[in-house]
Amino acid sequence: MSALARLHARWIAVRDAVVPPETVYAHCDIPCGIYDPHEAQIGALTVLRMDQLIAEAAAPAAGAKPEEQAAYVSKLARYTAVKEQHAERVKHEVRVIWGDYITPDHVKAYPQLGDLVVRILKQASKARQSPALAEAQELVKLVQEFSELFWTTKGAKTRRQPSLQKSGGELVLPVPA
Prior knowledge:
- The structure is a single chain.
- The protein is 66% helix and 6% strand.
- It contains six helices and two strands, in the order ααααααββ.
- The protein has helices at residues 3-18, 38-56, 66-101, 104-109, 112-129, 133-153, and strands at 158-162, 170-174.
- A two-stranded antiparallel sheet has the order 1-2.
């Protein structure tokens, strides 16, 4: 190994010691052929539930103890953090299906698919930015439409079933043949 190569390797080792590399995960670039919009649906329902909890959270009364105020702020911060994670999860799951599964033939057969993906990505961002229940409900609706189209591309019929989650809503599921 040349002196320059050794110096470069040493620089990378020092850099990695100071700022360790982040582990990344992918689903998956094999491709494995296993795709399902279920996690996007759960993510959208979670965004909705967090907005419901934010709306239900009672602000402490004027003159409340500092601990009560801190507990309220902490609760809102946790709800918001979970909402952020799940909105991003929706975007991730939809992007993976779009990028790894959807083909030009799918887009030709279902021309609304590309627009729907863009609308979901933008709506997930809107839902992150606002505690308005309507934004989260719209995200759920769009993800349900996407799920129905996804299963249609696989030749499956779908049904909507109550999610049985505290947020309410429905899940789109494929119907066994």
